[in-house]
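Structure first, sequence second, as always.
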């Protein structure tokens, strides 16, 4: 007998929304189930004082994939924002990512040659870095590691840098040019009008149930779709039967200030261990806002516990090994496909989420 839906998509984050859009294109009937009271997952933004406020942390779209850029541009136009966060440490400001400005601010070096020489004196020898600390020192030297990386990373991840995998720090560029662009990708920007209109467009043709937890829904509505795409936590799907995976959570303290420009930049990272938050986001600067007021968010990191929002998978050895066991269960689960940051337990950026969803749908269609 034909079922009511071809596809149930659990989660209305970017992965779920892209999938819903693509599934409609091939004529599938989709139901999206979202436990929050609104759609968009972690890319959701909301207008306050005329400013798009990124509810789940600063989101800058960037990609080197032409296909992903073209796809995103079906739903929005992007502004010319370039992400150039600053770091504050011990009462001084530094440019990020690690570049000639940063070398000058830390060491007084003025040419690439001087900077490279100084770095060589600092780098230590780790031909095969085993953890984030060794990787960071071998990349940028000990002084820069201690000023810009150690405190921030330990706050963000709640673990010593010696207990974290090297790949986390490889996300950041190291350059011998005076270039503060945080990303090397060819394409970058903030969607004009925000992220929420994008996901709403993607979901236009799908049925959407918000405020609905999949597990409760399934108990009442078994067998109403041929396939399920699950973008929630993979360990929760299996009732944590092999043990719980670890996640980091984030909390934001957001306030509206009666001034038009609080910090002069979209993001300032606080890289010492003493300041309890990791960064301060001033949302209007993502869109070159000229409003009279401003909205800022202080971002605090914490360990995830049941009932909190999981933000970051902790991709260390122990958790990756546990994930691989869950993945085996997932591969055996008939007609259920796991996707997205939580379903694949991967530290995906938005462009990787889109690429993965495009590829996955190609495969199942
Ligand atoms: P999510 O957005 O987490 O969506 C999953 C959805 O599933 C959620 O809405 C959740 O409520 C729902 N759900 C879960 N379980 C259930 C259930 N049982 N029943 C019903 N619904 C359920 N990427 C970039 O490219 N650039 C950036 O600048 C950037 N900045 C970031 C900053 C922060 C602080 C964080 C945490 C991430 C950032 N990212 C950034 C990554 C980006 O947020 C993700 O790539 C993207 O949002 C992941 O989409 P998703 O659909 O996989 O997951
Ligand atoms: N990082 C750091 N100092 C900074 C910014 C980042 O040490 O000022 C480290 C930190 O470990 C972080 C990693 O670099 O987890 C990757 O940074 P990115 O900005 O990509 O993290 P995101 O917030 O996107 O997860």
């Amino acid at each position: 007998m034909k079922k009511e839906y071809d596809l149930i998509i659990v989660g209305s984050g970017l992965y779920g929304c892209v999938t819903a859009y693509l599934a409609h294109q091939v004529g599938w009937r989709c139901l999206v189930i979202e436990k929050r009271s609104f759609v968009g997952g972690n890319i959701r933004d909301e207008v306050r004082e005329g400013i798009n406020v990124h509810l789940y942390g600063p989101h800058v779209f960037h990609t080197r994939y032409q296909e992903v850029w073209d796809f995103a541009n079906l739903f929005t136009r992007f502004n010319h924002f370039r992400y150039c966060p600053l770091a504050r440490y011990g009462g001084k400001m530094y440019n990020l990512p690690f570049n000639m400005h940063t070398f000058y601010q830390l060491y007084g070096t003025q040419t690439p040659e001087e900077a490279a020489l100084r770095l060589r004196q600092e780098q230590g020898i780790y031909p095969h870095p085993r953890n984030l600390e060794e990787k960071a020192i071998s990349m940028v030297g000990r002084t820069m590691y201690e000023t810009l990386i150690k405190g921030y990373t330990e706050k963000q991840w709640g673990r010593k840098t010696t207990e974290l995998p090297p790949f986390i720090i490889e996300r950041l560029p190291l350059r011998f040019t005076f270039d503060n662009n945080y990303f090397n990708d060819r394409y970058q920007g903030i969607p004009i009008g925000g992220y929420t209109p994008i996901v709403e467009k993607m979901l236009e043709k799908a049925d959407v149930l918000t405020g609905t937890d999949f597990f409760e829904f399934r108990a009442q509505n078994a067998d109403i779709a041929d396939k399920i795409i699950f973008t929630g936590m993979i360990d929760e799907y299996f009732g944590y039967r092999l043990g719980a995976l670890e996640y980091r959570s984030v909390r934001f303290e957001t306030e509206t200030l009666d001034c038009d420009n609080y910090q002069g930049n979209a993001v300032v990272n606080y890289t010492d261990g003493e300041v309890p938050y990791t960064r301060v986001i001033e949302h209007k600067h993502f869109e070159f806002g000229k409003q009279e007021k401003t909205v800022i968010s202080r971002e605090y990191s914490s360990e995830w516990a049941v009932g909190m929002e999981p933000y970051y998978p902790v991709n260390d050895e122990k958790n990756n090994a546990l994930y691989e066991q869950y993945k085996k269960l997932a591969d055996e689960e008939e007609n259920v496909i796991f996707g997205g940051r939580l379903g694949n337990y991967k530290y995906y950026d938005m462009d990787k989420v889109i690429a993965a969803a495009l590829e996955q749908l190609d495969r199942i269609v």
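Margin note: The pocket of flavin-adenine dinucleotide (ligand 1) is lined by residues 10-16, 33-36, 41-43, 57-61, 213-215, 231-232, 250, 311-312, 340-342, 348-351, 353 (CB under 6 Å).
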